[in-house]
From TrEMBL:
<feature type="domain" description="CMP/dCMP-type deaminase">
    <location>
        <begin position="4"/>
        <end position="121"/>
    </location>
</feature>
<protein>
    <submittedName>
        <fullName>Nucleoside deaminase</fullName>
    </submittedName>
</protein>
<dbReference type="InterPro" id="IPR002125">
    <property type="entry name" value="CMP_dCMP_dom"/>
</dbReference>
<dbReference type="Pfam" id="PF00383">
    <property type="entry name" value="dCMP_cyt_deam_1"/>
</dbReference>
<dbReference type="InterPro" id="IPR016193">
    <property type="entry name" value="Cytidine_deaminase-like"/>
</dbReference>
Amino acid sequence: MTITADQTLLRRAIDIAAHAVAQGDAPYGSLLAGPDGTILAEAHNTVRRDNDITAHPELKLARWAARELDPDTAAGTTLYTSCQPCGMCAGGIARSGIGRVVYALSTEQLVELNPQSGDWPTVTQHGPALFDEARAPIDAYYRPS
C-alpha cells in the first residue's frame, strides 16, 4: 500500500517514462529518493539508444546507489519506478542496498498491455561441475592464508 508521498514520487517516475518516449526511448522511468522524499537521482530506459541491454533505469539507479551512497544511507532510500523491476534489475537493487521499491505497473499488467514484454526465452543451464577447480579462486579470495 502506498501513501500520498509515495504516489507523488511515483507520478514523477511515470513522468520520466513519458519523457523517455518523447525522446524516442522505451517507456520506463525511475527515481531514487531519500527518507525525506528528496530526489537523489533519476533515470530512464536507454537500452536502444545505448545499445546496452542493461540500460534499464532501475539498474542504473542501483549502480549509482552502490557507488555513491554508504550502506546505511542506501538502506533508507526508496526506488520509485513506472514498472515492476525485471529479474536483472531486482538482483541489482538487492545488491545495491536500496531499502524499498515502489512501482506503478506490475509485470503482469505490463504484459497485458504489451504481450511482447513477457516473451523472453529461457536459457538452459548445466552444472555444477568441476567443484575442486572452481573453488580454488573462491578459497583464495575469501580465505587468504
